[in-house]
Amino acid sequence: MESDIKGLMNKYEYGLEMLQVQLNVLIKEYTKTHNYNPIEHVKTRIKSIDSIINKLNKKGYELTPNNIYEYVYDVVGVRIICSFISDVYEIVNLIKNFKQLTIIKEKDYIENPKESGYTSYHLIVSIPVYLNNRTEFGKAEIQIRTIAMDFWASLDHKIQYKFPNDIPEEVKNAMYNYAIDIKNLDHKMLELNKIMNKYKS
User: Fold this and answer.
1) Catalytic one among 141, 169, 170, 191?
2) Active-site residue 141, yes or no?
3) Does residue 176 come out as left (phi exceeding 0), alpha (psi in the -120 to 50 range) or beta?
4) CATH class for the region spanning 2-153
5) pTM
6) Which of these, 197, 185, 198, lies nearest to 146 by C-alpha position?
7) pLDDT tens across 82-116, in order?
8) Which residues contact 81 (CB under 8 A, 6 or more apart)?
C-alpha cells in the first residue's frame, strides 16, 4: 500500500511539472499575441500526505491510492494571480479552450462568493501524465484570482488555523465586510484599467 501511494504521488509530481510547462506555453503565446501579460505570478504545490489523510477522513474514506484519485481533487494545486477581474476570465477561457486539458468541474466564486465572502475561480482539470510505456491521468485544482482576492484568502487561511473550531462572530463579520471592500476595490481598479487602455489606444 505504502509503495502504491508513493508511486501515485510521484505521478502527481510529474503531472504538476507537465502542467507548469503547458501553462507557461499558453501564457507566453497569449503575451506575444496580445502584447500583454495578464498574470502577476503563479504558485504551485503538491498536497502533503497529512493533508490528504485529513481530507479523506473528513469525507469518510480511508487512505488508498484509488480514494486519493477519486476524492482528493487538489493533490496538485496551481494558483494564478492576476491584476484585474477581466484578466481572471481571460485566463479561465484560455485554459478551458486548451485541448490538452479536460475540465472536470468549475466553480465561479467571483459571481457566486462563498458565505464567508471568499472569491476566486476554481477549475478542476484532468492532466495527462506521460510515462515510459503508457499515459495515465491525474487531477489538479487551478485557482485563478486577483491580487486583492489572494490577499483576503491568505488572511482567511490564517484565521482558519487560529480558530480551528469556531471563528468568533465579530471576526466572521469583519472578514465578510472586508471581502465586500475588496470586491469594490477590484471593480474600481478594473475601471481604472479601462481608462488607462483608452489613453494607450
Assistant:
1) 141
2) yes
3) alpha
4) alpha beta
5) 0.91
6) 185
7) 999 999 999 999 999 998 889 999 999 999 999 99
8) 39, 40, 41, 42, 43, 145, 146, 147, 150
